[in-house]
Amino acid sequence: MSKVFITCALPYANGPTHLGHLRSTYIPADIYARYRRLRGDDVLFVCATDEHGTPIAVKAEAEGRTPLEVATRYHEMIRGDLERCDISFDSFTRTTDELHHEIAQKFFLKLYEKGFIYEKDIKQLYCGDCQRFLPDRYVEGTCPYCGSEGARGDHCEGCGRHLEPLQLEDPRCMVCGSEPEVRDSRHYFFRLSQFQDEIREWIEGSEMPSNVRNYAIQWLREGLKDWILTRDMDWGVPVPLEGNDGKIIYVWGEAFLGYISSAAAWSKKTGRDWREYWDSGALHFIGKDIIYHHAIFWPALLMAYGCRTPENIIAGEYLSLEGQKMSTSKNWVVWTSDFLERFDRDLLRYYLTVNAPLTRDTDFSWDDFQRRVNDELADVLGNFLHRTFSFTGRFFDGRVPAACELTAEDREFLESIRTAHDTVGELLDKFQFRDALMHIIKLAKMGNKYFNDQEPWKAVKESPARASTCLHLCNLLAANLGKLLRPFMPSAAGRILSIMNLEDEPWGFHELEEGQVIERAKPLFSKIPDEAIEDEKAKLIEEDDEVETVTIDDFASMDIRVGVVRSAERIEGSDKLLKLMIDVGEREMQVVAGLAEKYSPEDLVERKVTVLVNLKPAKLFGVKSEGMVLATGESLNLLDPGDAEVGERIR
Q1: Residue 353 domain-assigned?
Q2: 86-80-248 Cα angle (round to 5)
Q3: Residues linked to residue 49 through DSSP beta bridges, in sequence order
Q4: Are 369 and 468 part of one and the same domain?
Q5: Is residue 586 located within the same domain as residue 533?
Q6: Which of 311, 342, 373 corresponds to the end of one domain?
Q7: Are residues 254 and 240 located together in one domain of the fold?
Q8: Do 515 and 504 touch, CB atoms closer than 8 A?
Q9: Deepest of 171, 281, 408, 418, by most Cβ within 10 A of its Cβ?
Q10: Which residues pair with 4 in a beta bridge?
């Protein structure tokens, strides 16, 4: 039994998760962790929310909240999203935890004492209007390399390069929009340049996927430069040296240590030593946009400290949406919670895995999602399982029949079943998740063909022994499909094993005894109707249209009034929706509002709200909604009408 240390990139706690996060990082990591556990390995699978840095501070300022309040809200959202997707972390913590601060400060001090951190005066952007130095994420401008507008002071999404704020053309303060000036400030730097040769040797001697290796080598060719390790702000891990009030450790100087602090928190709970797992070689699952940080900066920090460098870095490429780049600011995105309101988590895990290799950019299309679920899960996998279980129930009293004399075709079929775990396991060992899952679907297709070729509906009358053998082998395949699917679709796999009364055994071929009881079961997968897909596409169009300009006549046509909530209740089956009865003066109207993640029904009763009252009625979760309660963006802050009278129109 080997010890395995697996991490996921820390999700940043300034917003909920979307499908791009799941596809690049969390689902692949979970598949691998589940697979290694099934193999009998001792797995430590950790993550945390990254809760420091300027984006959270900027959002907190805009919302009139503290950064901790913002981070706490999104930590809970992110945790909920990942749990609902069956992501099986052993530890999921926060970088605002005291233990994390302690570990990060000790790490910084040791590097400082060893001479890898030094002080230096630098030129830095200063906002005269805000009267403060601007950390990198407080600055936006034009990328000097690719010309992309909206590049941040630390990173350009257009070309993926690491940037410094002073490199930006036409820089602007993100808070007030003014043009900053340049002033001197003293900061701490990490001697990254000293590790050029060691990093190259480490990368060239590793078995990293080509997308990670090629990115890293490209940056090494340009030469590594020392990296500023501190920032002028209050929100973060304080620099643990005297005379540095108002300075924190740069988020990329401490966020990596979330892997360590999460593991250390696990050790405190279990009494087991996380170092034994780390020393076995860590596997980092990340998104393409942070390859530089994990393949260059993080291993250099570990080398400086004297720790083992990661065993491997697996980076998922980008997921676009309906052929366009995802954009959270324009809401051109599918949020995890929204998806799970309508569809099962296993459908999400299946589609995001099977759509393309992890090392290639891919697209999420609602039409293609429907096609693959209907054609591959319902018509292939689900059909094979249902006809096997139904036939067994009808003609063999719900028990697996005996295997009689085997034909050459039977033996070939049996051999494919016997070798399936080895084949899928070899692909998973190489992180080829798509190919592994496609092999399982290929087996189900083979099962359907075998069933059709054997014609057990005829054989049960004309040659009972042939029908018995056919159904024994089909049930054998069904059992092994259930076992094989456990890393990919744990909920569906569990249902298959439950129907067949099988235990959750280690990875490997499963023999099936004659007489094994098969329970009566409904089809495992239902087809997605066209109407459901059209609804989802319409939501995208509506949300995309929100960023378009409107005429004064368009605005005047909206009847927005002050209302007061008279009653509120949760809607069964939904984690987000509440049914509200709202008094808008001349009448009471029923409104379904997506506020349950922030407000309890009791919070809303007798509260004034702003309501769009002439919205076309629609049904959500089978409940009629006659209007819309207005709130701000992802934060769901209700628009407060103040002292305005109930029923008063807003103009």
Answers
A1: no
A2: 115
A3: 94
A4: yes
A5: no
A6: 342
A7: no
A8: no
A9: 171
A10: 43
Q: Which parts of the chain have pLDDT scores under 70? A: 542-556, 573, 575, 619, 621-622, 632-636
| Contacts of residue 595, Cβ cutoff 8 Å, sequence gap at least 6 | 576, 578, 604, 629, 631, 636, 638
Same domain, 122 and 237: yes
DSSP character at residue 282: E
- Whether 440 and 484 have beta carbons less than 8 Å apart is answered as yes
Binding-site members are 143, 146, 156, 159, 328
Three-class SS of 61-120:
HHHCCCHHHHHHHHHHHHHHHHHHCCCCCCEEEECCCHHHHHHHHHHHHHHHHCCCEEEE
Could you identify the residue written with the tokens 């298959």? Answer: 496
Could you report the per-residue pLDDT of 540-584, keeping only the tens digit for each? 876 555 444 545 555 667 889 999 999 999 887 676 788 999 999
DSSP string, 198-217: HHHHHHHTS---HHHHHHHH
Annotated binding site for Zn(2+): 143, 146, 156, 159
Residue-number span of the structural domain to which 259 is assigned = 3-105+250-342
- Alpha-carbon distance 636 to 350, whole Å? 31
d(CA 141, CA 154): 11
Please state, in angstroms and rounded to a whole number, the distance separating the CA atoms of residues 465 and 472. Answer: 10
Strand order in the sheet with 132-133: 132-133, 117-127, 181-190, 227-228
**For residue range 393-420, what is the model confidence (pLDDT) as tens digits?**
999 999 999 999 999 999 999 999 999 9
Which residues have a Cβ under 8 Å from the Cβ of 430 and sit 6 or more positions away? none
This prediction's pTM? 0.80
Our count of domains for the chain comes to 4
**Residue corresponding to tokens 């939904």:** 574
- CA-closest candidate to residue 259, choices 231, 299, 208, 319: 299
For residue 354, is it within any domain? Answer: no
The predicted pLDDT at position 594 comes to 84
Domain boundary among 223, 247, 271: 247
- 449 falls within a domain: yes
pLDDT at site 11 = 97
Q: Say yes or no: 378 and 516 in one domain.
A: yes
Q: Enter the tokens of residue 147.
A: 């010309």
Q: Report the C-alpha gap between 475 and 472 in whole angstroms.
A: 5
How many H-runs (helices) and E-runs (strands) does the chain carry?
25, 26
pLDDT digits (tens, 9 = 90+) for 210-259: 999 999 998 899 899 999 999 988 999 999 999 998 899 999 999 999 99
Contacts 24+ apart (CB under 8 A), 202-205: 202/299, 202/303, 202/309, 203/295
Q: Is 132 helix (H, G, I), strand (E, B) or coil?
A: strand
Burial environment of residue 369 by CB neighbours within 10 A (0 to 12, 13 to 18, 19 or more)? buried
Which residues lie closer than 8 Å to 238 by C-beta, 6 or more apart? 101, 105, 244, 247, 248, 249
| 223 lies in the same domain as 330 | no
Q: Distance between CA atoms of 483 and 304, rounded to whole angstroms? A: 44
In the annotated binding site for ATP, the residues are 328
